[in-house]
Design goal:
Elements: E1 10-14, H1 22-32, E2 36-40, H2 43-48, H3 51-58, E3 61-62, H4 70-84, E4 88-93, H5 99-103, H6 112-135, E5 139-149, H7 163-185, E6 188-194, H8 200-203, H9 208-218, H10 226-237, E7 248-251, H11 262-272
Parallel strand pairs: 1-2, 1-4, 2-3, 4-5, 5-6, 6-7
Helix pairs in contact: 1-3, 1-10, 4-6, 6-7
The structure holds 1,4-dihydronicotinamide adenine dinucleotide.
Length: 273
């Protein structure tokens, strides 16, 4: 269903790799709601995914940018304003990657070069993006910036590895930069803490099948899908949430406030028999 929630709004969407990506679903939904945007991803992802297909479907341009490179982000933001014909109203940061996770390094046996790369891609890239937007005066007043997080930032999920630390860092950047963006530019900054979701990044985490099933059984409303995450993101881009800022917003079917559910207890008790 479409409500024209984003009619007349312009933005940038980072991180659509393939049709499973949360950013992909968000781009489709923003398009349905009347928003215009530029798509961006790391140059290497252009070769791996099928972002071109999404660009055609939504009538968007693609401007490649490695989100760890400030020059790339500067070029992206300038070109996006040119292409879209004005300042921006929304930005989605939907980027995450840990080299330690990819290489299967245990949390107690990290390669710190990989750790550095991981926090640069997953967290500092959000600071870099906001700093460029801030310095270039690229956001309209009452604009909205959103990044995606996961609850391993607050609770222990052993296999989530250093991505847990990266997400804690990301959420802190959202608050710290959000203060200045709010005070100086009347722009809001939030993170959405999403349920486990079967995407390229998600399924790369060891034991993913187990914790997506566990989270689903634990959550009174079940896991939130990528499409539902897209819908929630739209509300944060819309004018209906103007005073929501500096928040980490759980979008997880209730998981984050659960102790135990009957289903999880039943499964556990079955194993005891
Ligand atoms: P995805 O694999 O589809 O998206 C990750 C994106 O990050 C890819 O498009 C990739 O090309 C991009 N990326 C990696 N390095 C980059 C760089 N240097 N510059 C620019 N882009 C780069 O997976 P998904 O799940 O859609 O991930 C989106 C966000 O959602 C991430 O922040 C992820 O941590 C977060 N998230 C995912 C959950 C899941 O279970 N899938 C749960 C909670 C949060």
């Amino acid at each position: 269903m479409s409500y024209n929630l984003l009619k007349g709004k312009r933005g940038i969407i980072f991180g659509a790799l393939d049709e499973n990506s949360i950013a992909w679903k968000t781009a489709e939904r923003v398009n349905e709601e009347g928003g215009k945007f530029v798509l961006t991803n790391a140059p290497i992802a252009m070769r791996m995914g099928n972002i071109q297909q999404l660009a055609e479907k939504t009538g968007s341009e693609i401007i490649p940018a490695d989100a760890t490179k400030v020059e790339d982000i500067e070029n992206l933001v300038e070109k996006a304003m040119e292409v879209l014909g004005g300042k921006l109203d929304f930005v989605l940061h939907s980027i995450g990657m840990s080299v330690n996770v990819r290489k299967g390094n245990h949390y107690t046996d990290m390669n710190y070069d990989f750790t550095t790369k991981g926090w640069d891609v997953s967290a500092v890239s959000f600071h870099k993006t906001m700093q460029v937007l801030y310095k270039k005066e690229a956001m309209n007043e009452w604009g909205s910036i959103v990044a995606l997080s996961y609850m391993a930032a607050q609770r222990v999920f052993p296999d989530y590895n250093d991505m847990a630390d990266n997400k804690a860092y990301l959420e802190s950047i959202a608050r710290s930069f959000g203060y200045f963006f709010g005070k100086d530019k009347k722009v809001r900054v939030n993170t959405i803490s999403q349920s486990p979701t079967p995407t390229t990044a998600g399924t790369g985490v060891k034991g993913f099948d187990g914790f997506i099933a566990y989270a689903d059984k634990m959550s009174p409303l079940g896991n939130a899908t990528a499409l539902e995450c897209a819908d929630y993101t739209l509300t944060l881009f819309s004018d209906l949430t103007k005073k929501v800022t500096l928040q980490n917003l759980y979008h997880d079917g209730g998981f984050s406030n659960m102790g135990v559910s009957q289903e999880v207890m039943d499964t556990f008790m079955k194993d005891q028999e």
